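Course assignment 3, question 2. Fill in each field.
Student: A.L.
Task: Predict the tertiary structure for the chain below.
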Amino acid sequence: MALERWLFLYTAPGLPAEGRVEVVKTPACTTTLAGFPTTDMAMRACSSGLTDTLASSQLVELCGGFASEHLLTIRAIVGPAVPVGLVTYTGDMTAALHRLFG
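Answer field:
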């Protein structure tokens, strides 16, 4: 089976509280990019406005701003058949990340 539908959740300061959802479609794949100002707001959306998108996704990725607890919550929502991953950075990126986020 080919990947046809996936969701990427991210956080970005300045986004509206209700989030910004953009859908990118190609003939082979639909990518949903869902951004929120905080992880808490994103998680609330996963329990309400994004439930249909989550239910139809074959793969879910969370940006590095999310934690393991968020990953577990999403896994509980989508079930064991849908891979849910968390973007991480290797240890050699620590200094660069500290420059960005203090």
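Instructor remarks: The chain has one domain: 5-101. Residues 5-101 form a domain with the Rossmann fold fold (CATH 3.40.50).
Grade: pending
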